[in-house]
Amino acid sequence: MAEELVGTGGAASDPDGPDGVRMSWNNWPRSKVEASKCVIPVAASITPIRASPSVLVLPYQPLRCKPPCSAVLNPFARVDFAAKIWICPLCFSRNHFPPHYAGISEANVPGELYPQCTTVEYAPPPLDHHSAPSSAPPPPPVFLFVIDTCLIEEELGFLKSAMRRAIGLLPDNALVGLLTFGTQVHLYELGFADVSKIYVFRGIKEISKDHILDQLGLSASSVRHGAAVGMPGYTKAPQTNGFHPSGSVHRFLLPAADCEYALSSLLDELQTDQWPVEAGSRALRCTGVALSVAAGLLGACVPGTGARIIALVGGPCTQGPGMIVSKDLSEPVRSHKDLDKDAAPHFHKAVKFYENLAKQLVSQGHVLDLFASALDQVGVAEMKVSVERTGGLVVLAESFGHPVFKDSFKRIFENGEQSLGLSFNGTLDINCSKDIRIEGIIGPCTSLEKKGTLCADVVVGQGNTTSWKMCGLDRTTCLTVFFEIVPSERSNQSGIPNPQLYIQFLTNYQGPEGQMRLRVTTITRRWVDGSNAEELIEGFDQETAAVVLARYVSLKMEMEEEFDATRWLDRSLIRLCSRFGDYRKDDPASFTLNPNFSILPQFMFNLRRSQFVQVFNNSPDETAYFRMLLNRESITNSVVMIQPSLLSYSFNSPPVPALLDVASISSDRILLLDAYFSVVIFHGMTIAQWRNMGYQNQPEHQAFAQLLQAPQDDAQVIIRDRFPVPRLVICDQHGSQARFLLAKLNPSATYNSAHEVVPGSDVIFTDDVSLQVFCEHLRRLVVQS
Fold first, then answer.
1. Angle, nearest 10°, between helix axes 620-632 and 635-642?
2. 312 contact partners, CB below 8 Å, separation of at least 6
3. CA dist 718 to 12, 82, 142, 420, Å?
4. Could you tell me which residues are beta bridge partners of residue 254?
5. Most buried residue, 147, 317, 684, 763, by CB count within 10 Å?
6. Can you tell me the distance from the alpha carbon of 776 to that of 621, in angstroms, rounded to the nearest whole number?
7. Is the backbone peptide bond immediately before 75 cis, with ω within 30 degrees of 0?
8. Is the pTM of this model over 0.85?
């Protein structure tokens, strides 16, 4: 386990298994008290639509248990073939098979009952041809680009070239719209071919959805009026649900194949915001109004189909709703200190605005993606709620010309191997055995407030429901579900309690090609006696536990004032080690941990120092960005965010995993650090001098050229498979950029112990404790009586 962790994380076997579910505890204690003694919450990390070649796709409707259970038939159901009855493992109801299952027998079972198919996907054909033609094409994806024009000329140039590349990659049938904003919002009517026609909205005050639709001629009254007068651009189609006729969609949203030329010429003509900026002032930027107009337009034109608002923002919102800072440069953008002291005057008002925007987008089924590229903050901390609740993507870069932005932006539209598999309109329903309650979910989703007996009283994240909306999701989207154990009186009376617990995850979603799918994953775990520590230890997953704690602590830091995360983590670790460690009282040397727990102290040490807990030196925007990615990535990726991996390259051995320690630095080595958000190639002093002398270009030093090239190739492999694309930092020992590596290393050698350092190695100028000291203190505190 340890070797696998120190290395690049690419274990041969897939840690998530075919179901894409990992749990902090795989053996569950039976009582609430025993669960609380386990310290680490009972939680599952799930990847609802994970790409897996082994998933069986069934071309018919699923068979469900009788309400209120409604669980789907699965391999854990008990089947009586003679009586044609199946018993649901979740609620123990008896269900008759319908007539079309008449041929079922032990030798002839449907795919959903194969024992290895605990995850299946239903892709029922569209309804029969009497009610709807089965050949009706699925709805096309919709992309509405919202572009900031308060940029310098150079940045706008970078943004235009990224946009041109994106438009070339869009599928021909995708509907595209364009909206630009600066001091005012400009919405382009792409369907008006003769001249470019623009609707302008003022950026100073909040505009209601009805007002937006009225001005665009999309509300019921204005369309009726227009149709009566016979205005061009309106079709006399019948009204649907009080909104636009379908023809008006094509005024603002056109298939990519039809509007590629129009978009290119609009981009060519696009200028930076012409509004004059006074000396000592920021540009007037109305991001909030622009996003309101975009949401209103999509709500009127394509409600309920997969649509994305892709916002490209280059600075802070300085007027209107969602404003994060005033236009005066004398007022700095809010910092963590300001938020702690409640000295950020615009923060709560902006968050409230984006919460309402999130509600509107979720009810429409639409996604907000945010690409923020600026040296200063742009308001990611405020916008986090509307991006996360809609399942949107977020990328934070320092310029529209930076590879982090350019390559990530391109990845959204790519097909084939590199495709992200962006899906839309997901809903997740969870059903479980009767002694389990659901506390909530941390991750990119929104509670649908579907209350029921399975909801716990305690709420974590998006709770009070058994059903969640995921407007946007992809193959790697990961959610953390928190459970509570509440043994009912009935379960104890029946004599022999059931040794297994069952949980079923049902994900309805619209795939990248527009087809509707239902993914069903049913998992089982074992109930054990909570007082038996060995059985609990056997089912403990320390990687998942570390990530669950990181996500839980990040949430508590956001929700609770004065919450001391470092102390909370330390206490939790001490309680956990004293419960599951082996030791003699008051004898620190006797303390040992089972291999299933042995790396957890190291994870906690790195989590305490990570950017999720130590917000000093990060802006609120960066912290929000890091936490959003921590909450949506797989366990394997999240572990790398908490505890980066380090590889060492030298002449005398192939690349080997190295300890994440300052002692790993050597003048004749190259180190490759993968810290998830950045990938660092660090050249030792001697290597850097040889490279500067050009030895790698001489034929007799081919081995040196290969040594220099190997980490570059490995870094490209990491970068290619990751979204958002990490920042690549290439640096030398004692160079200024070396801080990217040094900040992540265990400070086993500091300026206090400089006399003991091996020549060619390095020291870290810090007063932080090292891992060794941390573990000594931990041992001492755990064993004290």
1. 140
2. 145, 146, 147, 148, 159, 163, 371, 373, 400
3. 16, 54, 30, 15
4. 176
5. 317
6. 36
7. no
8. yes
The residue type of 534 is E
- Count CB neighbours of 567 within 10 A: 10
SS3 sequence of 280-306: CECCCCCHHHHHHHHHHHHHHHCCCCC
Q: What residues contact 520, with CB distance under 8 A and at least 6 apart?
A: 62, 72, 74, 112, 119, 120, 121, 122, 504, 505, 506, 507
Rounded alpha-carbon distances, angstroms, from residue 347 to 342, 351, 461: 9, 6, 21
Give pLDDT < 50 ranges for the chain: 1-12, 128-133, 223-245, 492-493
Return the pLDDT at 54: 85
Tell me the C-alpha to C-alpha distance, in Å, between residue 408 and each of 372, 602, 619. Answer: 12, 32, 22
Q: Residue 563 belongs to what H/E stretch?
A: none
Q: 55: which 2 tokens?
A: 């998933």
CA distance 512 to 532: 47
Tokens 């999720």 belong to residue = 612
CA-CA-CA-CA torsion sign (680, 686, 687, 690): positive
DSSP 699: G
- The strand ranges marked E within 349-486 are 366-373, 394-397, 423-432, 436-442, 446-447, 467-473, 479-485
Give the containing element (helix H, strand E) for 66. Answer: none
One-letter amino acid at 334 equals: R
**94-96 and 436-442 beta bridge pairing:** unpaired
Q: What pLDDT does residue 652 have? A: 85
pLDDT of residue 245: 44
**Beta partners for residue 732, in sequence order:** 683
Q: How far, CA to CA in Å, does 712 sit from each of 562, 643, 706?
A: 44, 21, 10
pLDDT in tens, 622-663: 999 999 999 999 999 999 999 999 999 999 889 999 999 999
Beta strand 21-23 with 43-46 is: antiparallel
Task: Scan for tokens 């990040």, then name that residue.
Answer: 554
Q: What is the 3-state secondary structure (H, E, C) of 581-645?
A: CECCCCCHHHCECCCCCCCHHHHHHHHHHCCCCCCCCCCHHHHHHHHHHHHHCCHHHHHHHHCCE
- Report the length, in residues, of the chain: 785
Q: Is 234 left (phi over 0), alpha (psi -120 to 50) or beta?
A: beta
Token pair 């709420």 is at which residue? 459
Whole-number Cα distances in Å, 494 to 34, 164, 488, 489, 498: 21, 67, 11, 10, 9
Q: Would you give the DSSP letter of residue 99? A: G
